[in-house]
Amino acid sequence: VSTTKENNEKEELLDKDRAHLWHHMSPHNDHPHVFVEGKSSWIKDIDGNNYLDGMSGLWCVNIGHGREEVARVAAAQMSKLAFAPLSQSHVPAIELSAMLNEWLQGDYKIFFSNSGSDANEVAFKIARQYFAQTGKGTKYKFISRYRAYHGNSMGAMGATGQAERKVKYEPGGEGFKHAPPPYCYRCPFGQEKGHCKMECAQAIDEMIEWEGEETVAGVILEPVITGGGVIVPPPEYLKEIREICDRRNVLLIVDEVICGFGRSGEKFGHQNFGVEPDIVSMAKGMTSAYAPLSATAVSSHIYEPFKEKGKTNHFRHVNTFGGNPVSCAIALKNLEILEREQLIKQAKDKGKYVTERLAGLTELSLVGDVRTFGLIAGIELVEDKKTKVPASPEKVANVLAMCKKQNILIGKNGDTVPHHNNVITVAPPFVTTKEELDLIVETLYVSIKNANK
Ligand code: PMP
């Protein structure tokens, strides 16, 4: 029972929030939900209510909340060396770049930044400069897919294929083109899942042709479109895109911001599909969000034309906080925890378990499709299974609200617009127990059932 003093303090805090804090991606909210602490898969709000964090925050707290050994590493690194610029070097960045190469099973140079958006901006700039310095300076365009999210800054927003996040902010970066996604449930080419010629991959080849091969620098894609609706491509899709990029002299940039660091059941999402990207961007799961950090891993052969000494052909890009020693030390500890506790295998096994359990949801009239990839699930809600008319934003919001009432936090795709806002998303921490996963599935079942009443 909260005391009057506690209530007064809480009201003061909420007043300050209303007066000063601009919330991300949300309309003004007079009653913001304030969280104060977290442990494992649970986060507690200011009133003491505990919630099962079914989205790992924003698909990021993969090792779970409240790991004191991470805090200890952060404190030790802060005491020792809180900052040194990466135009020079420091120990945590060196160790982390070597470790990332082990995880990537390739030969990459690692450029550190702060966020997923940053990591993608760096990928675009490096790709353009690479071509400029190898005699192909006309190559500047990037192809991504509709429904993909690649970040909020002008270039990354340009690559993003979700119109609802761009209206009123455009024009963004120049030269970003969009291809139809490999959306088998609503195939843009009218084909049936498993009975197609992967027209979606061919479309990218055709776009390069129409745009002019000599103008296209890269294709950027997530292994699986996550935030845009958990859109899982046919198994051979990525290999086909790799082949197209090789044939067209176009770089393959894989955005592992969500899929990386075990979320897919492998260390990186693309490792599920047997392809080697030219550039890999990563963020969120690299530190499990205990500190901001991102990286752009660039295949060594692309680094070559940046190497010459005494010229201006180095990558002329800096960001103050990128590769901060404390963030790098935290990332190293996070990777150690993922390995030591075999959390990636757990993510894979738990992903399979969730897939089996979610199959039962398809009997509900509102459920059109259930898609999973590693420990990610997307449940596409429709008004009618035959016509596939997307469920209304109100119904989707209802499902989320009912789950929240039962202390389960889940997510949805896109912003609040009809048609691209009807996929419920689940991506819990890898430490979530089977009983907790059961709780998520059962709460979802009841909430979706009741949302259609
Ligand atoms: N790429 C993908 C696939 C993402 O999901 C996100 C963030 N949700 C980003 C890039 C951008 O990352 P950030 O928010 O750290 O800029």
From TrEMBL:
InterPro entries linked to this entry: Aminotrans_3, Aminotrans_3_PPA_site, PyrdxlP-dep_Trfase, PyrdxlP-dep_Trfase_major, PyrdxlP-dep_Trfase_small
Domain of life: Bacteria
Keywords for the protein's UniProt record, in alphabetical order: Aminotransferase, Pyridoxal phosphate, Transferase
MF annotations from Gene Ontology: transaminase activity
Family named by the database record: Belongs to the class-III pyridoxal-phosphate-dependent aminotransferase family.
Xref: NCBIfam families: PRK07678.1
Protein name according to UniProt: Aminotransferase
